Write the structure tokens for this entry.
Amino acid sequence: MKGVIRGFSLILVLMGFMLAGLSYAQENPPTLTLQQCLEIGLKNNLNLKASRYSIERAKSMAKAAHADFFPKLHMQGTYRWLDNPVKIDIPQITIHTPFGPLTSPAKTVSEAARNSGIWTTSIIQPLFTGGALTEQYKLAKLEAKREETVFENNRQALVEAIKDAYYELVKAEKVYHLAVKFSEQLAEHLKTAKAFLEESIIPLNDYLQTKVTLSNARLNVIKAKNGRKIAQSYLNLLLNRDINLAIRPEMEFPMPPLTQPLSYFQELALHSRPDLKSATARVAEARSAIRLAKSSYYPHVALSVNYRDLSDESFENDSASVLVTANWSIFEWNKRKWQVGAQRARLEQAILLESQLKQQILHEVKTAYLNVKESLKRVETIKDSVEQAKENLRINNLRYKEQVATSTDVIDAQTLLLRTEVNLTIAKIDYLKALAALEKAIGKPLKEDLS
């Protein structure tokens, strides 16, 4: 019995260690860098996987269109069986000639054989289609190219979303640590205030004010902790992982300024944006569609080589033929004219949309560029404010110990420092997010464009 109890106790101890280890792993997860998050997100995203299949489908359709240029082999076989073939009785026929009578004996023949078969083999090669095959192939290739730009646009949008979520997690993590630090500072100040109260150096209301402020600070710690968990959950959602997994982000990022002028980034965007490449591909598709519609004005000529094998119970016969076939629709009540007109309208629409998109891209780049400049300026300004707030807190702590300042002065100084540090964190994150938005606006990474 004692052995059973010892064994059960050992199991409980082991389970305790396991739960403690699990709790530690959740509270202290390994650092997950931004680059690692991007790799995980790009690998796991279902929308990107679906886009890859769209590219594969479009490329397969282009290969199928290319196959239409080559000869095609067709085979067709027919077998016929009659249960009761029609029979014809032919009487004896005698023809008198100067050389004597010629007699054909009476006989019975079938109108059709009981068993018969026809096997036809044909090779067909298009000779002229008015450019239809060429334009169909071009359209298929353009669609494949456009699907690639759609994939790249989706990829860049996901990269921006992951970066935004990651930076929001960094902000939530920093705000949490600042809230904890503020709470600890208030706790230390409360100890000092309690000692002063016991010595009747400060009034009771000063002590109570510090105590209430500390309670509110601890509530803010809980709120900041929940904010961190929500940020982790959303980032996991974008990475297509378990939303309850803990994530520890890297906390420091370089913040280089932009050295190139706005015009440089706008020109870069006009050459790099995947959605603009997609719009350009639509213009090319519309031009090709016009030529495809015009191909119906011309005859379609094809060469065919045929072999026909006919066999039944009474005889066998085979034949070969070479044919050149031309199909030409002469008049269809202006149907082809309207089809060409429809494609011309499609072209004009595509050109206008492409032009409008260019203007929109220039505006997006300008907005993102100015946001980057503004965010960096805010960071530089708030950095000075943080140093001033730290000095203000140091002075008020000294004045409080010398009893020339009240608890309110110290708490106000601590609150000012916390608010300034939070503002600095927000400004830094806004700058990083503005850089990510500029990357999305120009359609490529900014590494080589930053000093």
